[in-house]
């Protein structure tokens, strides 16, 4: 599998709202199938963007280190990881690696 396919794999999303003190809530999101891929924040949308950034960075780092990320299911055919990486403001390194991984 190339990087584009690996970044198109759908992972299960866990979401939890935690009351940190009376009336104050924190959102915790995770892709439990991808070790270390978690994010916390006050706003769901911002926390989800941070989680997606981490997902991409973890997968890219694993691939660059010669290790395969978990592949619990097939990649989504309609996914566009290059657009996602650029939308999230990821480094040009990630965008360049994705650009090279097209078939």
Folded structure, characterized:
- With 103 residues, the protein is an alpha+beta fold.
- It has one domain (3-100): Double Stranded RNA Binding Domain (2-Layer Sandwich), CATH 3.30.160.250.
- The protein is 40% helix and 18% strand.
- The protein contains 4 helices and 3 strands, in the order αβββααα.
- The chain has helices at 3-6, 44-64, 81-87, 92-100, and strands at residues 14-21, 24-30, 38-41.
- A 3-stranded antiparallel β-sheet has the order 1-2-3, covered by helices on one side.
- A hairpin with a 7-residue loop joins strand 2 (24-30) and strand 3 (38-41).
- Helix 3 (81-87) runs antiparallel to helix 4 (92-100).
- The longest helix is centred in the middle third of the chain and has 21 residues, at 44-64.
- It is elongated and about 50 Å long.
- The chain starts with a helix and ends with a helix.
- The mean pLDDT is 90.
């Amino acid at each position: 599998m190339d990087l584009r396919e690996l970044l198109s794999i759908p992972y299960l999303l866990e979401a939890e709202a935690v009351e940190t003190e009376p009336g104050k809530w924190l959102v915790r999101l995770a892709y439990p199938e991808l070790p270390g891929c978690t994010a916390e924040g006050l706003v769901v949308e911002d926390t989800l963007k941070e989680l997606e950034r981490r997902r991409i960075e973890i997968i890219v780092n694993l691939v660059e280190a010669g290790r395969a990320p978990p592949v619990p299911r097939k990649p989504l055919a309609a996914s566009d990881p290059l657009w996602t990486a650029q939308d999230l403001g990821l480094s040009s390194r990630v965008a360049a690696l994705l650009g090279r991984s097209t078939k």
